[in-house]
Amino acid sequence: MTRRTYILVLYKNRATDIADDIKPIVDHLDPGDSGFAFDNNVAFLNTAQDVATLTKYLNAGPLSNMQFFLADITNADRAGNMFPVIWDFLHKKDELSPVD
Q: Is the pLDDT confidence value at 76 over 60?
C-alpha cells in the first residue's frame, strides 16, 4: 500500500480554524493515516486513499458546505521557508511509506 501526500486548501467563508475541520477528515482515514493543519485554511493529508475516493468523501462529508482544492504532492519537489514541524510531517511520510 502506497501512501500519498495531499495538500488541501479550503476556501473558508467563515471564521473557524482548519483544525476544527481536519479532525473529522483524519478520523475517516485509514489507521496510520494522518493530517497536519496550519494557517486557517491549509492542511497536509497522508493517506493511501486515491484522490477520487478522498474527494468524494470530502464532498459528501465534512467539507460538503465548503469549496476546496486537493492536490497529490507525493512526488512533487518541495522547498521553502516553513516551520520545522511542517518539514517533519512531510519527511515522516517519506520515511514510513512502504514500498510496493
A: yes
